[in-house]
Design goal:
- By secondary structure, the protein is an alpha+beta fold.
- It has 25 helices and 27 strands.
- Helix 9 packs antiparallel against helix 20.
- The chain starts with a helix and ends with a strand.
Length: 719
């Protein structure tokens, strides 16, 4: 009985204990479930974010910028993949040793690297965008906690070619100049973020890309070959004249497309950091200067358009001086009676002043504004200046005289070439532009913002433009711009020699000038307008001897490259004189001789050439005597190719690529050449290529008139 009672009591005790254990277990289970529910439902977001911070790191890297091409789809700017080194300091056992080893490779002080390691235990940049050799050296260290990430780096394969148009970027691939800045939002695209993940042992590896969208590609109006020609000739002129700066612009006057834009000083956008701001300045759109005599084109255009003058009208230039409001203004020469054509050809200041007085201040001002001066051209490049133009109410008694000859007014090169292009094309102003289109893949993007199309506007009547073209041709044929005369094409233009203001005195400097020339060719169907501006040349400082020959050298390379038919027969005596000079030249100096530069020839030869170009009837091109065209064909390392049947453009491209200097004679297709195909010559050797002229071209040449002549005198204008 007692045992039975003891057994029952024991069972009750066991059941009680089981009940307690079960209760406790149920309580803890409920507590755990409640806690889990609280964590999963209430604080899920907080703990998920904390876990993400522990397990992954999102790195924003430079986006894939679009490619910038020239008009022929040659890449001028692109993004290439490079490696950037980063560290996970929590994995580095000896930070001091790691910093010391890395410092010698990435050129970052060890204490700077240590500070980066200590600032974050999960991520720190070691060095971004390493050159391949440095990335390999870091990898060979095999340091634990050091990793690589692929990034994009901007690369300019042609170095300083068109650098002021292209611009440059900062280390984060943000545009800081040129098209890179102007279209940064289009080229840059959206930012790229890379997620770097960590496993349970805190070992890091690449995760997924958060987002990636490449920027749009840009197709420019520039032609890299024309750009190269412009830069080469500008640099040669700067070296020859020891000038401080300069600009060259080549434009299509029929639509405003800029084919080349060159400035000096220039820079390499691949290493733009530390380059002086002066070298990065795009002088073609930002530099403001007094245009000097080139502005007389605007003065005459306004008077012609108002019907106040004709080319044969005569003005009394009063022996080279005139008095305005008690101030005597002197001409650069003592001119007497001059026709309007001679006023432009000889660049008479007194004549221009008298024409401006006929217009009056307000009408003159209206035409100046009509040509775009005092306002931005809206070119699709950053940093454009509007120039300087005061309203007539602010003019003094002599202002109308000063403005008529290019003083008291400030212009930019882009403004001036745009105005001259309007004269070339018949009186229509086009917005200058360097961007042809934007593309994303095969899709052409709509033109928006700075790329939006601007309706061209008429600034002068076609008859006015035609009169000015004839007068500008006279400047080249027998005036101050005779050194700009082309061999094989008609040309028109105007010289300018503007005194600069001396900052120390506030007066015009007696030594520092801006020598300029702007013109176009051919006259009847202009293919290019070219502006040359040379700042502060040493020695000769007038636009005629300094800038006009640059126009000539550029035009005589660009026109055959563009396959522009010749509209004037080459003068045989000039050709033979050039080759005799070349034949007699020393072989070492052969590179420096320009076959079409006759500035060193006697005046008699130049006068005879003037008559020959305008008066002779074109004859079929004849093969030049071998004794005249012979050049040194041995001792070189370049094999002359066979040009037979090729166009002028093809010949020019091949010669530029090989480093040869082409002399192109005639038109149509190549028929003969000297040196012969297969000969070996030195770099810079001149290669003469003869082209056949079609019959249609002969008829066109026969129908052309001679140089503009003054037929009669209608009026004589005196004070």
């Amino acid at each position: 009985m007692r045992q039975r009672r003891a057994h029952a009591a024991s069972g009750q005790e066991t059941a009680k204990r089981l009940l307690i254990v079960t209760g406790v277990a149920l309580f803890w289970t409920a507590a755990v479930l409640l806690r889990l529910g609280y964590l999963q439902l209430v604080r899920h977001g907080e703990y998920l974010a904390r876990a993400m911070r522990q397990q992954q790191r999102t790195i924003e890297i430079t986006p894939q910028r679009g490619v910038i091409y020239d008009r022929n789809m040659h890449p001028l700017a692109m993004s290439v993949g490079v490696k950037s080194a980063f560290a996970v300091p929590a994995e580095i056992k000896d930070e001091s040793l790691a910093a010391e080893l890395l410092s010698g490779i990435v050129n970052v002080p060890p204490d700077v690297l240590e500070a980066r390691f200590q600032s974050s235990r999960s991520f720190a940049w070691v060095s971004r965008k390493l050159p391949p050799e440095k990335a390999d050296a870091v990898a060979k260290l095999n340091l634990k906690g050091i990793y690589f990430q692929e990034e994009n780096q901007r690369f300019y394969p042609k170095r300083d070619l068109a650098s002021h148009v292209l611009g440059f970027v900062d280390p984060d691939e943000k545009g800081l100049g040129g098209i890179e800045y102007e279209l940064d939002g289009k080229i840059r695209g959206k930012s790229e973020k890379i997620i770097v993940m960590a496993d349970a042992r805190q070992r890091w590896f690449d995760g997924s890309e958060a987002q990636r969208e490449r920027g749009a590609n840009v197709v420019l109006t520039l032609d890299e070959k024309i750009q190269y020609i412009a830069q080469r000739e500008l640099v040669a002129t700067i070296e020859k004249t020891h000038a401080q700066a300069g600009s060259v612009i080549v434009m299509n006057p029929n639509n405003g497309e800029i084919l080349a834009l060159a400035n000096w000083p220039m820079f390499n956008p691949n290493v733009a950091t530390g380059v002086p701001a002066e070298a990065r300045m795009n002088r073609s759109v930002s530099a403001v200067y007094e245009p000097g005599s080139t502005f007389k084109l605007v003065t005459l255009a306004a008077a012609f358009d108002q019907g106040l003058i004709r080319g044969e009208d005569v003005f009394d230039c009063e022996n080279g001086s005139i008095v305005l409001s008690g101030h005597r203004i002197h001409d650069h020469k003592r001119f007497g009676l001059l026709t309007v054509a001679d006023i432009l050809a000889k660049s008479s200041d007194v004549g221009a002043i008298k024409i401006a007085l006929m217009l009056g201040p307000q009408k003159f001002y209206d035409y100046i504004r009509g040509f775009g001066f005092g306002a931005m051209t809206q070119v699709d490049l950053p940093g454009e200046s509007r120039g300087i133009l005061h309203r007539p109410e602010a003019w003094s008694g002599i202002s109308i005289g000063s403005v008529s000859m290019g003083q008291e007014v400030g212009v930019t090169p882009i403004q001036l070439i745009t105005a001259v292009s309007a004269i070339a094309n018949g009186g229509t102003m086009y917005r200058p532009h360097v961007v042809q289109e934007l593309r994303r893949g095969a899709k052409v993007l709509p033109a928006e913002g700075p790329l939006a199309e601007v309706e061209p506007r008429r600034v002068i009547r076609p008859e006015t433009a035609a009169s000015l073209r004839r007068l500008m041709e006279g400047v080249v044929l027998g005036g101050t711009g005779f050194l700009a005369r082309l061999d094989g094409w008609t040309a028109a233009g105007k010289t300018g020699s503007a005194q600069k203001i001396d900052p120390a005195t506030g007066r015009y400097s007696p030594r520092n000038f801006i020598a300029s020339f702007t013109g176009f060719a051919p006259i009847n169907n202009p293919a290019v307008t070219i502006l040359v501006s040379i700042d502060s040349p040493v020695g000769l400082h007038e636009g005629g001897p300094v800038a006009a020959p640059v126009f000539k050298r550029i035009a005589e390379q660009v026109l055959p490259y563009l396959e522009v038919p010749r509209d004037v027969q080459l003068n045989p005596r000039l050709i033979q004189a050039a080759y005799k000079k070349q034949q007699a030249a020393d072989a070492e100096s052969l590179e420096d001789f320009t076959a079409t530069d006759f500035s060193g020839q006697p005046d008699a030869l130049l006068e005879e050439s003037n008559e020959g170009v305008t008066a002779q009837t074109p004859a079929p091109p004849q093969r030049l005597p071998q004794s005249v065209t012979r050049v040194e064909e041995s001792g070189g390392d370049i094999e002359v190719p066979d040009f037979s049947g090729k166009t002028m453009r093809e010949v020019s491209e091949i010669c530029v690529r090989l480093g040869l200097d082409p002399v192109l004679v005639g038109s149509n297709l190549a028929t003969d050449q000297t040196p012969a195909a297969g000969a070996t010559v030195k770099r810079g050797t001149k290669v003469t290529v003869q082209f056949g002229m079609p019959a249609l071209m002969k008829q066109a040449n026969k129908s052309m008139g001679g140089a503009p002549k003054v037929a009669r005198v209608r009026k004589v204008y005196k004070r």
